[in-house]
Amino acid sequence: MENWDFREWQAALGGLDPRAAALVGLAAAERIAGCLGDERFLRHGASAAEVARDLLRECWSGAQGGDGSASARIQDLAGRLAGLSAEYETLSMTDLFHSYEPLAGDGDEDPDDGVPDLEEFLEEAEPEGAVTMHLDALTAVGEAAAACAGGPWDGALRCLQVTAMAAEQHDPRLPGPGAEVRRQTEDLVSVRAVDGGRLRHLATRLRTRAQADAAGWLRATERRGLLHD
Fold it and tell me: At 153, phi and psi to the nearest 5?
């Protein structure tokens, strides 16, 4: 599957053991989470980056045979991450709002005429550039975690979709994003080739490779403008 196709992936993951489907999504989340090492993200998102790392760690622990309480911890961390993601988006867009010069009134006009309203701006503005990459990474981690916590396998599908679409925003020659769809396909082949009892061993290999690919995602994100490309 050289080009990412929703229906193909839906059929592919639907035919897997839910634990295997979750593992494919988790590897993708680990890769794109490299975006969260961007120093510009850490300015407002340091807490989110920490929670995302803890969440991924818990997911991998569960996939590699962790204790039975992993699901509850994953759900708790995922809820915290969702709140921090929304907070990061608001803070980033507020920065953009404050970067604009207020429009002063002329003559007898009300001095507030023409000055943009922050609340209205936040309702209408859309994230751009590297901020979009950061938010996509947070979304992917949350979706992967939902599948790892015993939820529907379609959390893994949404994670793969978000990650593949984010990869399309980068130069395809860059490491990390440039290899993302191929990596997803390779991971799918790998989980299909093992029985359920060996998934925990496969998880270790997938995690190691995904962590190496995460560095490419970080470098690619650092090349993008923060809020404008």
Answer: -65, -15
Return d(Cα 55, Cα 200) in angstroms, integer.
Answer: 18
What are the start-end ranges of the E strands in 122-211?
none
Q: How many CA atoms lie within 13 A of 3 on its CB side?
A: 1
Element (H, E) at 76: helix 70-99
Q: What's the Rg (C-alpha) of the chain?
A: 20
Provide the sign of the torsion angle of the four alpha carbons 75, 82, 165, 219, taken in this order. Answer: negative
Could you read off the pLDDT of 21-80 as tens digits, one per residue?
999 999 999 999 999 999 999 999 999 999 999 999 999 999 987 666 789 999 999 999
Q: How far apart are CA 75 and CA 71, in angstroms?
A: 6
pTM of the model as a whole: 0.90
Please answer whether residues 104 and 8 qualify as being in contact, where contact means their C-beta atoms are separated by less than 8 angstroms.
no
Please give the torsion angle defined by the CA atoms of residues 116, 130, 204 and 191, in that order, rounded to the nearest 10 degrees: 90
- Give the pair of three-digit tokens for residue 147: 């599948």
Angle between helices 39-63 and 70-99 (to 10 degrees): 170
Grouping H, G, I as helix, E, B as strand and the rest as coil, residue 2 is coil
